[in-house]
Amino acid sequence: MVTADTSAGPVLREMGEEAVLLELASLEDVLLVHRALAASRPAGLVDLVPAARTVLAATDARGPALAAVRAWLLATAERALAPGAGGSTGAVEEEVGRPDVLIHVRYDGQDLAETAALLGMDADGLIAWHTAHAWTVAFSGFAPGFAYLVPEREDEAIGRPLEIPRLSVPRTTVPAGSVALAGTFSGVYPRASPGGWRIIGTTDAVLWDDAADPPALLVPGGRVRFVQVAA
Question: pTM score, two decimals?
Answer without folding.
Answer: 0.82
